[in-house]
């Protein structure tokens, strides 16, 4: 009996120690800081203020920056929508996000000079960037998150046109989602000592509520190659979630800070919270964000959204009543 109690106590202590070593990671969807959000900031406002407490209640925060941040450059021809935010917007990202993904279809809206200025502003702020860079090697370099004895590699790719802004051997640009390159990067991150590998994708068709066959094929390929979870964005709407081989796939987080959309699905996004340990994703949930007309997101309580955890079958719907 005494031995049983000792074994039980040892088991409890091991469980508590494991919980203490988990890392809480946040992913936000598309952040566009031109137009309405940019005007809010210019007027002294803060489009991220409603989510401030949530964003600070994590070990590491990542978002997709859906615009160059620059004062130079020339608008790219033959694009319906182009964005360029004033450098003052960077101050609103500091302290809220630790890293910004650049692999998207708007990073190159004002050409290479604006893209390189964007990188300079991000670096000067102390925020990391990934999914883009001064050349192909830098664009494919993982974001390394090292917290509580965990080494997490986050990769980012775009596969929505124009591909013309893909980084080259000696040319700035973004990481393009070529299947063989993605698989190589995932395996290379594992070989470099990653405990967790998470691709952050810019993919799918705009305003489609369900993932495309291409998204499904690529997500399976990435998990088969060793990814622990897959997180997506770009379609401007959320697209649900799925488990594949026990690993969560969140197809699209939708918009997070974005204006220009009528009331409807494009004004609703998710903030994703992952709790990670050495074995992968321990548990995860989503907080619903509703954007007002100016593109400022507001957390919606008592709004069911996808969640899950190790040992649970399928994706659940969680009713979040607290935001921190």
As a percent range, the share of helical residues equals 25-40%
Number of domains: 1
The residue ranges in which pLDDT falls below 50 over 5 or more consecutive positions are none
CATH superfamily: Metallo-dependent phosphatases
Radius of gyration: 20 Å
Order of helices and strands: HEHHEHEHEEHEEEHEHEEEEEEEEE
End-to-end Cα distance:
41 Å
Number of strands: 18
Major beta-sheet overview: 10 strands, mixed
CATH class: Alpha Beta
The third-level CATH topology is Purple Acid Phosphatase, chain A, domain 2
Structural class: alpha/beta
Mean pLDDT: 93
Keywords, separated by commas or semicolons:
ten-stranded mixed sheet; globular; six-stranded mixed sheet; 18 strands; 31% strand; 8 helices; Purple Acid Phosphatase, chain A, domain 2; 324 residues; alpha/beta
How does this model look, in words?
This protein has 324 residues and is α/β, with parallel strands linked by helices. It has a single domain, classed as Metallo-dependent phosphatases (Purple Acid Phosphatase, chain A, domain 2). It has helices at residues 2-20, 35-42, 52-56, 90-93, 111-125, 136-139, 179-191, 213-225, and strands at residues 23-31, 60-65, 99-101, 128-130, 132-133, 143-147, 150-158, 173-174, 196-202, 230-233, 241-244, 247-250, 255-257, 268-277, 280-291, 297-300, 303-309, 316-320. Strands 1, 2, 3, 4, 13, 14, 15, 16, 17 and 18 form a 10-stranded mixed sheet that branches. Helix 7 (179-191) runs parallel beside helix 8. The radius of gyration is 20 Å and the shape is globular.
């Amino acid at each position: 009996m005494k031995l049983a109690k000792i074994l039980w106590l040892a088991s409890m202590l091991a469980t508590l120690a494991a919980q203490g070593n988990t890392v809480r990671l946040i992913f936000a969807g598309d952040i566009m800081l031109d137009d309405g959000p940019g005007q809010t900031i210019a007027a002294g406002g803060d489009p991220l203020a409603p989510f401030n407490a949530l964003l600070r209640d994590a070990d590491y925060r990542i978002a997709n920056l859906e615009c160059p941040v620059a004062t130079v450059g020339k608008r790219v021809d033959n694009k319906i929508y182009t964005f360029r935010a004033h450098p003052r917007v960077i101050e609103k990202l500091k302290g809220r996000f630790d890293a910004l993904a650049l692999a998207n279809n708007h990073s190159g809206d004002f050409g290479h000079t604006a893209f390189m200025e964007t990188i300079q502003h991000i670096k000067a702020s102390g925020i990391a960037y990934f999914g883009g860079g001064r050349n192909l090697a830098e664009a494919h370099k993982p974001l390394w998150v090292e917290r509580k004895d965990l080494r997490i590699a986050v990769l980012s790719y775009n596969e929505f046109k124009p591909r013309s802004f893909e980084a080259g051997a000696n040319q700035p640009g973004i990481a393009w989602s070529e299947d063989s390159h993605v698989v190589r990067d995932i395996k290379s991150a594992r070989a470099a000592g990653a405990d967790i590998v998470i691709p952050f994708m810019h993919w799918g068709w705009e305003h489609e509520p369900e993932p495309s066959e291409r998204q499904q094929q690529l997500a399976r390929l990435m998990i088969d190659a060793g990814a622990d979870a897959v997180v997506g964005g770009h379609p401007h709407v959320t697209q649900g979630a799925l488990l594949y081989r026990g690993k969560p796939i969140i197809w699209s987080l939708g918009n997070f800070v974005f204006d220009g959309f009528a009331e409807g699905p494009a004004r609703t996004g998710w903030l994703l919270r992952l709790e990670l340990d050495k074995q992968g994703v321990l548990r995860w949930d989503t907080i619903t964000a509703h954007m007002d007309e100016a593109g400022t997101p507001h957390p919606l309580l008592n709004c069911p959204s996808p969640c899950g955890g190790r040992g649970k079958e399928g994706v659940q719907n969680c009713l979040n009543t607290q935001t921190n």
